Amino acid sequence: MKQLFLTLSLAVLSQPAATWAVTPPPNAAGVSNGHLHLNVRDVDANTKFFVAMGGAAAKEAGVVEFPDVVVRLRKQDPTGESVGSVVNHVGFLVPNVPEYMAKMKAGNLKTEAGNRPEQGFLYTPDGLKIEILEDKAQTVPIRNHHVHFYVSEAAIPQMQAWYVNTFGAKAGMRGQFKAADIPGVNLSFAKSDTPTAPTKGRVLDHIGFEVKHLEAFCKNLEASGIKLDRPYGKTATGVGIAFITDPWGTQIELNEHE
């Protein structure tokens, strides 16, 4: 374990002192990708993990930035790993998967081979599964790509339609999977042969979207019959905030940074 922390610490020191432009322009509904919020036992160890992946540690403790997504870490024992929950894993893109995975393995991160050379998997210290896919044309070392939901086969078209109708996502396919795109993230929907658990409390507690005119957006959600788990308000720093849960158990935080 000491060797793991030493290796990760060296990786942190080797990262450029840069901050990503993380929020992509919104779609017509005013929505873009925002963040992934994790429950973790050790914030420092998880920060080092995500920086070793290629993220940039923010000035705020427990925050690591990537192109198109922010990872936020909260010290809290998770109730379970991501596999088995409605969000089975998340995905990132790199220019060369074999080279990247070799680097992660050399850094003593938990890795797993994929089904093809251009696919691999990483696991955070608390069990968030992260798929690594390849885009040879991208000009950054790593960027956010997808959130992969696992639900019953019958629920797949319903879930796709819900994200299209609720967030203005663009319906489509990602390979064999029905999908929906929001600026900064692809939402992919796969069949699970067993029931999957809600995300709240697990290592990936919730996903987050940025929303323009959030207060009006929340009023429209309520008018359409969607219950707010936390009504619209503002944090102490002036950030607009609200929470909802999709019909399959994915907790979603909505933010508006002015």
Q: What's the CATH architecture name?
A: Roll
Average pLDDT figure: 93
Poorly predicted runs are 1-19
Number of helical stretches of at least 4 residues: 5
Main sheet, how many strands, which sense, barrel?
A: 8 strands, mixed
Q: What is the helix/strand order?
A: HEHEEEEHEEEEHEEEEHEEE
CATH level-4 homologous superfamily: 2,3-Dihydroxybiphenyl 1,2-Dioxygenase, domain 1
> What characteristic shape results from the CA principal axes?
globular
Q: In terms of structural class, how would the helical and strand content be classed?
A: alpha+beta
**Percentage of residues assigned to helices:** 10-25%
Verbal overview:
This protein is α+β, with helices and mostly antiparallel strands and 258 residues long. It has one domain (2-208): 2,3-Dihydroxybiphenyl 1,2-Dioxygenase, domain 1 (Roll), CATH 3.10.180.10. The chain has 5 helices and 16 strands. It has helices spanning 2-14, 43-53, 97-106, 155-167, 214-223; strands at 31-40, 56-57, 63-66, 69-75, 87-94, 110-113, 119-123, 129-134, 143-151, 170-174, 177-182, 185-191, 204-211, 230-234, 240-245, 251-256. The strands form 2 sheets. Strands 2-3-4-1-13-16-15-14 form an 8-stranded mixed beta sheet, with helices on one face. An 8-stranded mixed beta sheet has the order 6-7-8-5-9-12-11-10, with helices on one face. Strand 7 and strand 8 form a beta hairpin. Helix 1 crosses helix 2 (43-53).
